[in-house]
């Protein structure tokens, strides 16, 4: 883990500030009750445009949001990439030293984006297409046409705003608010669970992109429970008992637990067999699943790591990037991909049905089943964050 940026003065409100979500406190109170007494979040948390806009600013721009794997973001010789983190335009740059910088994608002259969202470039300098201001890959101003002889104009005072960024096990996280809690507080004890799998050394062999007609939190909540598994995941239940394992209660802005493999199964695949290579140091009988707030779901198997990267599009639509990582690029990944593509699609169908139900005027937040304690942890973390309490402060 490396600290790659020093934050400027914050301009975006981060979780933990006094700005609260546009949800009536009384509507959140049932979700904040202890496990066994609490309920799910109110429907407005999943359907409201106002709540969604607040989440983009406070949860995604105002927290440590995963934007992908560093090696994949710079693939093809890319030196600069434009993207949006929450509702903030961000520019990633990859200087020759193989580091990475996160900069506000806002020219210091008139605010024009240096690159459009989704745009990339391979040049060794940043060029604003509006008035030709030019910056180094570290964000310092190199040239401003017409300003050379302007009294009092100092290029050193007009560099691009630098944003905090952290590389953690190969994944890049950006704090677009420049005001989130320290990253070490955000991940808390999660590092000790993930480190034995050495994700940064693994190779991505497959990626699927899904458009799911459901709120991003519905997807996260579904991920954290197997109460639904016997009804919609018969293939998963053949390799792992749906009531196996236990959930963690450790520091950090994350929720997760474990699942055991059945006797005769060595991984999660349609027949329980592996065509891969065991990850040295990984528990051969357990699959771990963790959700790091707000948008990275990590599934750790004995022989591969799978991630779901959630990108909210609207209150009822989420883009999900699912990736599979293995020890070697010589492995046929289809045994894991086919299993999880089937399981994913079963989940997406259920999540989309939940989203339709949440839009009904008859929806009333329901209780948690006895084995949904991880969902309760997630819901209370979100509900507290709506009230301005940092996600890691639980």
Description:
The chain is α+β, with helices and mostly antiparallel strands. Helices cover 23% and strands 24% of the residues. The protein has 11 helices and 18 strands. The chain has a 6-stranded antiparallel β-sheet with strand order 13-18-17-16-15-14. It has a 5-stranded antiparallel β-sheet with strand order 6-3-4-5-10. A 4-stranded antiparallel β-sheet has the order 1-11-12-2. A hairpin with a 2-residue loop joins strand 11 (165-168) and strand 12 (171-174). Helix 7 crosses helix 10 (334-358). The longest helix has 25 residues, at 334-358. The model is unreliable at 1-10 (pLDDT under 50).
What's the gist of this structure?
It contains eleven helices and 18 strands. It has about 400 residues and is α+β, with helices and mostly antiparallel strands. β8 and β9 form a beta hairpin.
What labels would you give this structure?
394 residues; alpha+beta; 6-stranded antiparallel beta sheet; 5-stranded antiparallel beta sheet; 11 helices; 18 strands; 23% helix; disordered N terminus
Class of secondary structure makeup: alpha+beta
Element pattern in H and E: EHHHEHEEEEEEEEEEHHEHHHEEEEEHH
Order of strands, main sheet, comes to 13-18-17-16-15-14
What is the count of DSSP helices, taking H or I runs of 4+ residues?
11
- Please bin the fraction of helical residues: 10-25%
N-to-C span? 23 Å
Q: Mean pLDDT, rounded to whole units?
A: 94
Low-confidence stretches: 1-10
Question: Looking at the structure, what is the overall shape?
Answer: globular
Number of strands: 18
Beta-strand fraction estimate: 15-25%
Radius of gyration: 22 Å
The biggest sheet, with number of strands, parallel, antiparallel or mixed sense and barrel status, is:
6 strands, antiparallel
């Amino acid at each position: 883990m490396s600290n790659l940026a020093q934050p400027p003065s914050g301009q975006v409100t981060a979780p933990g500030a006094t700005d609260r979500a546009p949800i009536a406190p009384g509507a959140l109170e049932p979700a904040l009750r202890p496990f066994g007494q609490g309920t799910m979040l109110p429907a407005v948390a999943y359907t409201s445009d106002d709540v969604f806009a607040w989440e983009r600013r406070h949860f995604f721009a105002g927290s440590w949001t995963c934007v992908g794997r560093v090696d994949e973001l710079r693939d093809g010789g890319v030196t600069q990439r434009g993207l949006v983190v929450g509702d903030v335009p961000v520019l990633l740059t990859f200087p020759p030293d193989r580091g990475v910088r996160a900069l506000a994608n806002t020219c210091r002259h008139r605010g024009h984006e240096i690159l459009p969202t989704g745009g990339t470039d391979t040049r060794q300098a940043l060029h604003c297409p509006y008035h030709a201001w030019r910056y180094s890959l570290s964000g310092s101003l190199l040239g401003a046409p017409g300003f050379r002889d302007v009294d009092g104009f100092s290029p050193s005072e007009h560099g691009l705003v630098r944003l905090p960024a952290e590389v953690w096990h190969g994944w890049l996280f950006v704090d677009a608010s420049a005001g989130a809690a320290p990253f070490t507080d955000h991940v808390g004890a999660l590092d000790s669970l993930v480190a034995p799998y050495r994700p940064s050394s693994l190779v991505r062999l497959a990626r699927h992109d899904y458009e799911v007609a459901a709120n991003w939190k519905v997807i996260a909540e579904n991920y954290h429970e197997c109460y639904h598994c016997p009804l919609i995941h018969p293939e998963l239940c053949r390799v792992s008992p749906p009531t196996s394992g236990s959930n963690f209660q450790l520091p950090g802005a994350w929720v997760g637990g474990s699942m055991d493999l059945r006797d005769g199964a060595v991984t999660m695949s349609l027949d329980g067999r592996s065509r891969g290579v065991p990850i040295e140091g990984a528990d051969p009988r357990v699959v771990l699943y963790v959700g790091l707030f707000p948008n990275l779901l990590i599934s750790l198997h004995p022989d591969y790591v799978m991630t779901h990267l959630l990108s909210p599009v609207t209150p009822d639509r989420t883009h999900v990037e699912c990736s599979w990582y293995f020890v070697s690029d010589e492995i046929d990944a289809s045994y894991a991909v086919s299993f999880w593509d089937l399981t994913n699609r079963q989940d997406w169908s259920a999540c989309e049905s939940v989203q339709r139900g949440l839009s009904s005027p008859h929806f009333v937040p329901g209780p948690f089943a006895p084995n949904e304690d991880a969902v309760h942890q997630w819901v209370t973390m979100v509900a507290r964050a709506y009230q301005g309490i940092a996600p890691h402060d639980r």
